[in-house]
Specification:
2 copies of one chain form a homodimer.
Chain A (H helix, E strand, L loop, with lengths): L3 E4 L4 H13 L4 E7 L7 H11 L5 E5 L22 H4 L12 H16 L3 E3 L15 H11 L8 E3 L7 H10 L22 H13 L13
Parallel strand pairs in A: 1-2, 1-4, 2-3, 4-5
């Protein structure tokens, strides 16, 4: 019996979240995954793999990629904007890798699905590290979004981000104790067969593995750190 | 040169809003229309007609109907829930005609599109009468949504509902002075060739025409008021 919704991209944060919800919190999430024209759409197969592995049903994939033009200001989507390297985004409060209002869209669709399934909790994998560049991963964002949904008169939905105070290394440590296989997660924004090792999310992922002291099992073109 | 976005369903409120923005406010809106599995999808042709008439480009139609199962708690979408008559919804703070979190989804997608187009203003046609049954048409909802978008660090978007204090009759009066042809708007939730005259939105529409003292030019199966 489904008792919550988990938004899972197939990246290491959200896949760890799914394992945490099922194994630690003993929840039974329906899984929601989004396509929005991202160059790294290959991440979705890893969301599917982990949802299947954990027996999470239903797994709803919402494909917004036919309308990817509304996200065309982002390097993650636009054919005209290259994925930047890590150095190019540092210190930028809203770098080219930001996708216009993406998280609010995801949370809004998840809240509708929660209402329809009759569950109150939606979980997503926002973590501390992302706050530097993404206003829509902060605790304040979460609080204000919840203040909107609190107005619902019959079926209020609550968004929770259990890892909002975790670093990426904290998430990795959590996942390792839960037996997460990180070769079944995907991060690289470039979305090629091997991770590039240079884009912001590769750099952060490699730094987390280095901090924890183990090797990332994914294939890389080069390992920047 | 587009300077704002208008969310237009093809109903009388949003069509009047579009005429008001173009003719009174001298704005140049891009138009955004949504399909979400609504039984009255025929309204979209009227959004298209009025956008064309006013020369509003681009007109982006976002089709969420492949994922209509997430809205399946609503009579407007579900094959298992009949459209109620007006009497059945009166006094209900969230009647069967409520669509789970629909307006937040629309506003979120509109805000993304605004960011990508580089405009700050999104307009939608919420009006006073709807507040009885729909938490997501209230001034408080609008205020809280704007408090979310205010966190955006580079491209904050502001949602405005110029008719939020108008009754449906006020909107009709406004539209008549602007030359809106109400035979090119659609309201009936049942979405048949003729409006049913009995569903909540037909009843409200007919009451507004009655209050203003003119006849609704749409064909009706019966006119309930």
């Amino acid at each position: 019996m489904v008792d919550c919704i988990a938004i899972v991209s197939g990246g290491m944060d959200s896949v760890t979240l799914l394992h945490y919800l099922v194994k630690t919190q003993k929840r039974s999430p329906a899984v929601l995954t989004f396509l929005y024209g991202q160059k790294h759409a290959r991440e979705v197969q890893f969301a599917q793999h982990n949802a299947d592995l954990l027996g999470c049903q239903p797994h709803q994939i919402i494909d917004l990629s036919p309308f990817k033009s509304i996200f065309d200001a982002s390097a993650l989507v636009s054919d005209h904007i290259a994925i930047p390297q890590m150095a190019a985004v540092q210190g930028d409060p809203q770098p080219a890798t930001y996708v216009p209002n993406r998280n609010m869209i995801f949370l809004s669709l998840a809240a509708a699905y929660a209402e329809t399934l009759g569950v109150a909790d939606v979980f997503y994998g926002a973590q501390r590290h992302d706050m530097y560049g993404y206003w829509d991963t902060t605790a304040e964002f979460l609080e204000r979004v919840n203040s909107v949904f609190a107005l619902n008169r019959k079926t209020p939905v609550r968004i929770a981000a259990p890892f909002v105070d975790y670093s990426k290394a904290d998430i990795l440590r959590t996942g390792l104790t839960l037996g997460v296989d990180y070769s079944t997660t995907w991060s690289c924004y470039r979305g090629q067969d091997a991770a590039c090792g240079e884009c912001p999310t590769c750099a952060e992922r490699l730094a987390a593995f280095k901090e924890v002291g183990i090797e990332d099992p994914l294939p890389y073109v080069r390992r920047s750190t």
